[in-house]
Design brief:
Layout (H helix, E strand, L loop, with lengths): L2 E2 L5 E2 L15 H11 L4 H18 L28 H15 L2 H21 L25 H8 L5 H13 L3 H5 L6 E2 L4 E5 L5 E5 L2 H11 L9 E5 L15 E3 L2 H11 L1 H4 L17 H13 L4 H8 L8 H4 L3 H10 L2 H6 L1
Antiparallel strand pairs: 1-2, 3-4, 4-5, 6-7
Helix pairs in contact: 1-2, 2-4, 6-8, 6-11, 11-12
């Protein structure tokens, strides 16, 4: 309550101090506190954790490992308070620039955005004061008009000699047009096989349905192999100590397949498909496809086949029609057919 002091001067009540939580014992713990405390959806938490682990190396003044070296690498151990080191911004800018030269712009920008969100949250907790990413700019990302795979590329993908898990995972991604992180969070008990649908936690935390077709439906019984609970897509070995209970199958003791590993396998498996003129001996130096291209391709093919805008919105689970613009653009097959149908030479031959 405000009061009048001596001489009629307005006296404001003294502000109460805000009790902030004690800082965690390490950067890794700070990441976990952020993921739970900021309400990050389970389907997004994996991507956030991977990005923040990458930034952990750079915030510790070390280059972030890339490629196979990244998998299984132990992140550095340091206090989150070290982010306030006055020498860090200059070193971080150099490390971020070097990483940006090696990675695609979309990945770099996504990781930077996630790092800034976490740093802002840590600032609000009172654990750190500054933001060492100030001055690091997003990289321009020109649109890639070739993300939608052609029909013959999709057909070639199904002919690859890969494990049952990969076949089912890739089929479900394409047939459902769902995001890879959403599908990887599926549990066996979330499936309704008779209806060819499953219940996922979508972007933003909403619970929604995804639907698949016969290709996925034929593979699921073999993949589940009688299991009734636990992660749908599993690794090939037992879960390491410390793995979250929700990410371990009680019946097999195997862990949930991670987005990072699923992406690596897909990229490695599709290198020759993405580079049809390359020699097999050069495969290690090639780049394959990303998992997101299956979702992009499915929605593009739907649009080409005349699927209505309301149905595309329902399939993609986007909130606005504007978000569909990237998928509504005709793909390579549709353009090729259009050009061929109007080829004067072809008409004369007919």
């Amino acid at each position: 309550m405000t009061k009048l002091g001596a001489g009629g001067v307005l006296r404001l009540p003294r502000a109460r101090g805000v009790q902030l939580s004690a800082p965690p014992g390490s950067y890794t713990a700070a990441v976990e506190r952020y993921l739970t405390g900021a309400g990050i959806a389970k389907s997004s938490a994996r991507i956030y954790r991977i990005s923040l682990t990458t930034w952990g190396w750079m915030l510790a003044g070390e280059p972030a490992p890339t490629g196979p070296a990244r998998r299984g690498a132990n992140p550095p151990v340091f206090l989150v308070a070290a982010i306030d080191d006055p020498a860090l911004p200059e070193a971080l800018a150099e490390l971020a620039a070097a990483r940006a030269d090696e990675m695609d712009a979309d990945t770099v920008n996504r990781e930077l955005s996630i790092a800034r969100k976490a740093i802002g949250w840590w600032q609000r907790q009172g654990w750190i004061k500054g933001d060492p990413t100030i001055g690091i700019e997003r990289r321009p990302a020109p649109p890639d008009r070739t993300k939608a795979l052609a029909e013959n590329q999709i057909a070639a993908l199904w002919r690859l000699d890969v494990s049952l898990r990969e076949k089912a995972f890739w089929k479900m991604l394409y047939e459902s047009a769902a995001r890879a992180d959403e599908v990887l969070c599926l549990n066996v008990e979330d499936l309704y096989p008779q209806d060819k649908r499953g219940k996922i936690t979508a972007k933003g935390g909403a619970t929604e349905w995804i639907h698949w077709q016969s290709g996925t439906a034929q593979l699921l019984p073999r993949l589940i192999a009688g299991r009734t609970r636990g992660p749908l897509f599993l690794t090939g070995r037992k879960a390491p100590a410390g793995t979250a209970t929700l990410d371990v199958c009680e019946e097999t003791s195997r862990a949930r397949l991670s987005y990072r590993r699923g992406e690596e396998i897909f990229e490695e498996s599709t290198r020759l498909l993405a580079n049809p003129l390359a020699r097999p001996e050069d495969v290690e130096d090639l780049a394959g496809w990303t998992l997101h291209r299956l979702r992009h391709s499915a929605l593009t093919h739907d649009a080409e086949n005349g699927t209505s805008t309301p149905m595309l919105l329902a399939r993609s689970r986007h909130a606005s029609v504007r978000s569909l613009e990237r998928y509504a653009r005709p793909g390579v097959d549709a353009v090729a057919r259009h050009v061929a149908e109007r080829d004067p030479a072809a008409r004369r031959r007919g």
